[in-house]
Amino acid sequence: MPARLPDLRSRSLVYLTGCLVFSAGAACFIRADLGTDPLDVFALGLLRHVTATIGIAQALVAVVCIAVWALWNRRRPVVSPFVTFFLCGSLIDILRAVDAAGLLPVHRAVLMLIGVLLCTYGSALIIMSGLGIRAMDLVAITMTQRWKWPFWAAKGSLELVLLGSGWLMGGPVGLGTVCFLVFVDTLIQPCMRLTTRLFALRDYGLEAPAPARRGLEAPSWSA
């Protein structure tokens, strides 16, 4: 156990950095006001038909994704994605409260692109840490490992389903929505490879072996 502590500390640092970077990107993306991400399109579309909140709608998506992941891998459901959900949500609220994104004297379109890039890199760091990987990313990783799909195709297909169904329910779609779908999903894996090359960080998420279908030990990337 003592030998694993430094490893866990470094992974935790990568995870927390990823959450902060992702939250900063989300704050910029929201401040730009040029569209919502696919998950919000679905959540806002759903709210046109049921009485709930955006947080509850997003949590329902997470529950479904975790259930799919658990059944697919024959594992117990994990709760760590909700830690990331609430941590990033709280950081976004703080950054919006102080209007951190408003300190950047740039055009809305540039602010949106900054947000997209930060969300991309933050997502890459969270996945690489293998800690608190978000629910949809867990399913995308399983698709990558079981079906040998590239990560961008797996994640993109999931978000495309959310985007399409959300739009059909009346959710808003804008330029930012398209940019988020195209660039974030496409660039996460290259960012992970670049980070590994530049900083010699190990990838505990996407490059981790697929979990065995039987046994008691959960894979490290579901921690």
From TrEMBL:
Pfam families: DUF6198. The chain crosses the membrane at residues 12-32, 52-72, 79-98, 110-139, 160-184. InterPro entries: YczE/YyaS-like. Keywords: Membrane, Transmembrane, Transmembrane helix. It comes from the Bacteria. PANTHER family: INTEGRAL MEMBRANE PROTEIN (PTHR40078:SF1), INTEGRAL MEMBRANE PROTEIN-RELATED (PTHR40078). This is Integral membrane protein. It comes from Streptomyces venezuelae.
